Amino acid sequence: MYTVADIYSILHASTKILVHPALEIFDLAYDTRKIRRGGQSLFFALKSIRDGHAFIGEAYRKGVRAFVLSQKDIDVSLYPEGNFIWVNNVLLALQQLAAYHRTQFKKPVIGITGSNGKTVVKEWLTQLLQDDRRVYQSPKSYNSQLGVALALWNLSDEYDCAIIEAGISQPGEMVALEAMTRPEIGVFTNIGAAHASGFASKQDKIVEKLKLFTHSKDLLFPSRYGIASMLPEGLRVFSFGTEPMDEVQVLRIEDYGRTATQIQVAHAQEIATFSIPFRDKASVENALICITVLLFFGYSLDAIASKLTKLKPLDMRLQLKKGKNGCSVIDDTYSNDLASLQIALDFLFQQQQHQKRTLILSDMDGLDDKLRQKLLALLQRQELDRIVLVGKGTHFMRDQLHTTVLLFDSTEALLLGLKDIPFQQESILIKGSRAYHLEEVSRVLVSKSHETVLEINLNALEHNLQVYRGMLPSGVKMMAMVKAFSYGSGSYEVANLLQFNKLDYLTVAFADEGVELRQGGITLPIMVLSPDEQVFETLLTNELEPEIYSFRILHAFITFLDRRQIKDFPIHIKIDTGMHRLGFMPEEMDALIQVLRVTEAVRPKSVFSHLVASGSRDHDDFTRQQLDTFARCAALLESELDCNLIKHIANTSAIVHWPEAYLDMVRLGIGLYGVDMDRTLDVEQVSTLKTTITQIKELPAGETVGYDRKGVLHRASRIATVKIGYADGYSRRFGQGVGQMSINGQLVQTVGSICMDMCMLDVTDIVAYEEDEVVVFPDLMKAAADIGTIPYELLVNISSRVKRVYFYG
């Protein structure tokens, strides 16, 4: 695509070392963990939570020979074959390169922005347009300052048009996105509460988002926000809304059965009624935006009506599921294009629980010869153990892939042949176009379980990790608490993401939890809290590091190691500074030092304690007392043992409130999983417990619901039975109207007692149908407060029989 010399010229950089100026660059890299073909990658040393300059050596070892840097003092003599370009701002340089590449694309670019619905509208428009033209879309939700640049890099003339989404969270960000994207056609979805905290008012947010269309020719938008007066001169407008002056006038919207909505619109003196296979408000609005775009492009009302019936609900996230025969299944079957395939493959190789990896891939829509060769090149550089190709359009790769290749003409043929493929202890990525319905393959390969599910958003978990990491000075390590099944969120699935993000330590409560992580491919150091003598052998064989909290455990562990002639086994010394749960008391330090001096069996690796009330300002004096006590004990240990220990005492609340407690390492717990007890941080909810309505009954006033007839109905009521009970971890304390759940965004209360496997809800005042989805804890903090507990208890009590489904992207 470009040589290093070309890129130097494009960036107008002042300083360079070009050893091989003719080196061709195809990939942009910023994360060494995702580098696949280093020799053709340009590495941008971005400075964010982590400084990319610290990873130049790792990128070089992976074959990268071209770098964009801002730091002047890099010893480039360590990389004799490297090409180096120095700029003032690395992210800006990446954006400049993307902007230049965008100018080489001469086909129409559609830019989409708004508070919500951007990604759905982009995906739906691609579905609706792809029968008539080859559409490039920015992958997943690549709508940030970095994401838009990476999306634009994949533009090529094989496409007839491109759809790029742009998202912002604060003022000043849209100017850079506009400079890169330069959309000829703009689509404005809506304005809602998303990222509201970054703007002084809704008006300010609208003004900022409209900057994406500064140089656009046409803008499509909902008229109800009154933005027409804010638009640049010369911009042609095409609005939809309920007013007669709207180009697309909405005349009527109403439910049509339990799964559909009818929308009647008027356009160009014609009236048409469309049926869409959705009922929720967000989907209706997104469909209206798509209708408006299609009308703008000149599609007839009849053609649009036919296209809308084919719309499918989108689950736009990679889903990591527990498969049969010890497999892990990554389900990404909602769309298939080169950019999203690369993202899915990156996620596949991020998984460490299995050494063997399989890709099940369908044919792609709109591939010409050039795109087919790009697909082939992408697959040739993956280290896959097996590739299953579905669709005759993929068969050209039969003899060109250096691995086992299985060919099937159709999804039906693959379903029949699955029984003959020995899927066993492997990670399986299923990536398919909508038309191939590979979700049917996923259903066959995934383990069956209880229909209540706990959805784990790995993107949110990764986001929360970066929020807390961003508060720490450089050099402070981080330990993550993954005990209690990662606060209910899972075991190796969560730990694997933390390992991918290069955490320093993990902590579990019991040795068995550590064993499961080791079996799942986790190699990070793992500390085990409060081990007993029965697990010493397990600690040894799985390289798990014990917390030592008493002389009894210390002597027993030393005796165990001496018998096996083991020396210098790492241990972690727990000091009791005020919790009075476990740990050596300060007055026991001298005796502890005497024991540690005379043994070679163990080697203290860290010393730590636990803060009692770091999140309560009422106990600040006690917290300071704990910090002082710990500092004295730690200093004494280091001095008398002549060693440097990792010192850690800060828990999640202390990370927020007590910077002086950071020391050498902090321990991140509940905050990682999206529970901010202070509600002051921009953390995201990680876990969502969902179930479904099994049955709805119409009952007259005076009837009772549930055991012991405690649910007395004082009016004629509609009662929904849902598939969750106290055996799933939904406490009996939520009975009698205490518990609230959400159905289609509307709150309802429990009726009667909570049963073992089910409970009942009063849905009299809302629209609800059997099989509708139910969110069990719409507000986790409120739910905990309603039964007098804390969010921790609700999360860790979710039963292991509740299926965990992991999403990424």
Automatic annotation (TrEMBL):
List of catalytic residues: K483 (proton acceptor), Y707 (proton acceptor)
Keyword Isomerase: yes
Catalytic activity: L-alanine = D-alanine
Residues given in the record as substrate binding sites: R581, M756
Enzyme Commission (EC) number: 5.1.1.1
Domain of life: Bacteria
Gene3D superfamilies (alphabetical): Alanine racemase, Lyase, Ornithine Decarboxylase, Chain A, domain 1, Mur ligase, C-terminal domain, Mur-like, catalytic domain, MurE/MurF, N-terminal domain
Cofactor: pyridoxal 5'-phosphate
One protein family per Pfam: Mur_ligase_M
Residue ranges occupied by any Alanine racemase C-terminal domain in the UniProt entry: 686-807
Enzyme class per UniProt: isomerase
Pathway membership: Amino-acid biosynthesis; D-alanine biosynthesis; D-alanine from L-alanine: step 1/1
Keyword annotations: ATP-binding, Isomerase, Ligase, Nucleotide-binding, Pyridoxal phosphate
Keyword Nucleotide-binding in annotation: yes
Signal sequence coordinates: none
CDD domains xref list: PLPDE_III_AR
GO molecular function: ligase activity
Residues recorded with modification N6-(pyridoxal phosphate)lysine: K483
HAMAP family registered for this protein in UniProt: Ala_racemase
Family: Belongs to the alanine racemase family.
Function in brief: Catalyzes the interconversion of L-alanine and D-alanine. May also act on other amino acids.
Protein name as it appears in the record: Alanine racemase
